[in-house]
């Protein structure tokens, strides 16, 4: 599950406001958040929110993220 709503809230943004920033409707953004967004889409969202792409994923973990497509845990080495 993506943390976009949580991140927006922490930045004082409502999802409707973020949808406008993203250049889409709230309904489309909702579909993106709850669907299987591409890496390019995730990068654009992360860039707009000014966070690393790894911050978009459920729970901060030590070196692991969950793939939004297959739900497998992926080990990430950050240098």
List the helices and strands and how they pair.
Elements: H1 4-10, H2 15-22, H3 26-34, H4 39-49, E1 64-66, E2 73-75
Antiparallel strand pairs: 1-2
Description:
- With 79 residues, this protein is mainly α.
- The chain has one domain: lambda repressor-like DNA-binding domains (434 Repressor (Amino-terminal Domain), Orthogonal Bundle).
- 44% of the residues lie in helices and 8% in strands.
- The chain contains four helices and two strands; from the N terminus they run H-H-H-H-E-E.
- It has helices at 4-10, 15-22, 26-34, 39-49, and strands at 64-66, 73-75.
- Strands 1-2 form a two-stranded antiparallel sheet.
- A hairpin with a 6-residue loop joins strand 1 (64-66) and strand 2 (73-75).
- Helix 2 packs across helix 3.
Total number of helices: 4
Question: In CATH's first tier, which class applies?
Answer: Mainly Alpha
Tally of discrete structural domains: 1
CATH fold field value: 434 Repressor (Amino-terminal Domain)
CATH architecture: Orthogonal Bundle
Number of strands: 2
State the strand order across the main sheet.
1-2
- Based on CA inertia axes, which overall geometry fits? globular
Residue-averaged pLDDT: 86
Biggest sheet record:
2 strands, antiparallel
CATH homologous superfamily placement: lambda repressor-like DNA-binding domains
Structural class, from secondary structure content? mainly alpha
Rounded to an integer in angstroms, the radius of gyration calculated over CA atoms is 12 Å
Low-pLDDT stretches: none
